[in-house]
Amino acid sequence: MYRYMRSVKKNKFSRHGVLKSAKAALNDINQKQSMHTRSPFGLFALLPREMRFRIFGFTPLSDLGQLSLTSRLLTDEVVNYIHSKDALPAIVPNIQFRSEQESSELFINAKTEYCWNHFKDLGWEDDEKFKAYLAIKGASCLDDRIRQVLRSPPGSQPWYERYIRVFCREIFLDKASDHTERGFWLCKILKPWPLVFQARLIYILYGPVNDENGTVAWNVLQSCPTYFGVEDAELMDLADALKILHVYCDSKDWNEDDFISVFEELTGTPSDWCLENIAKLLKLCGESVCFEVLGNKAMNGRVHELSYLGYHLGQVLGQDDMMYGKGNGIQCFSNTMRQVLAVMPSSKDQAALTSSLFNVWEENILSLGEGLQEDLDVTTPEEQEQ
């Protein structure tokens, strides 16, 4: 009896010991799982790297990209996986070649290999681009430099202006793959600032520069070196930027009123441009931008300004006809002026613009004749005979 009771007690304690050890092991496993769950690797921490790479191999690339955003350690792990041999079957799938034998004058009995259905469109979303822009802008203190330049008179901070121009164009604008992407970057650079500062910033980014040191040339467009304005190369970058803003920018970020306001501020930066240069800028911007600007002036009753600008626009377009022999410059001018007259609110305003435009044309023709007469009066009789 004693032996029996002793064996029962022993079995009882042994059973309790097994249960106690099992509970301890289970608690240990739970603690380890909770610890791994709280770690940056999550449950992947329970697995060796080889096993993680095997799991990555069965994971779609889109899901793998989402997984890499969860923590820095997982980002590094996914990058290590991509650079390993295990990732080759998933990242670079086996290309199936298809041979075709074709007869031609140049290639007879030649086999051409084709890659079939192995192309993928690359790119990134607008919100991803905007996050990248904010990160780069914050790391480079770009806003502080722009703020310092815009609060100072034009040309007083030439090297900061040059820094902003080179930085924005080399990092964002000139690296864009198409006009839509360039318009996105340009809108993000301009939009945080008031309209008057946006115009100055466009001039800093795309305005003419000094040949000696590459700084922004602020006083080039206030004067007119020739009868037809500055050379086209001085205004080509500005015209391309304005066309991108007018055509390719999102309507949520940029509308027609913003464009007109920036154009008006731009042609008055740092002081009013001569009309020949404004006309040349409109010519380089194309018919759409030209009609937008002239039509806005017509609807607001700025007939006097519109008539003089229309005259110089006709001269600039006529110069192209004379130099290149295209013959469509004056036709383009006539079509634009017809469209401008069509948007005017009344026939009285249309008649006033037409009359003013002819008066300006007559005035300039007469002044041209007077200038020629003065040149003839200065010459000597011997020079006239020659």
Gross morphology? elongated
β-strand number: 2
What is the end-to-end distance? 153 Å
Main sheet overview: 2 strands, antiparallel
Task: Report on this structure.
Helices cover 67% and strands 3% of the residues. The protein has 386 residues and is mainly alpha-helical. It has 3 domains: 84 residues, no CATH class; 145 residues, no CATH class; 75 residues, no CATH class. Strands 1-2 form a two-stranded antiparallel sheet. The protein is elongated, with a radius of gyration of 36 Å. InterPro entries: ARM_FBXO47, F-box-like_dom_sf, FBXO47. Pfam families: ARM_FBXO47 (PF24467). It comes from Pocillopora damicornis. This is FBXO47 ARM repeats region domain-containing protein.
Show the helix and strand layout.
Layout (H helix, E strand, L loop, with lengths): L1 H37 L10 H9 L3 H8 L3 H11 L5 H4 L5 E6 L7 E6 L10 H15 L1 H9 L7 H16 L5 H12 L4 H12 L25 H16 L8 H11 L8 H11 L1 H13 L3 H22 L4 H15 L3 H32 L2 H5 L1
Antiparallel strand pairs: 1-2
Helix pairs in contact: 3-4, 10-11, 10-12, 11-13, 13-15, 14-16, 15-16, 15-17
Please outline what is shown here.
The chain is 67% helix and 3% strand. The protein is mainly alpha-helical.
Which keywords apply here?
F-box-like_dom_sf, mainly alpha, two-stranded antiparallel sheet, elongated, FBXO47, 386 residues, FBXO47 ARM repeats region domain-containing protein
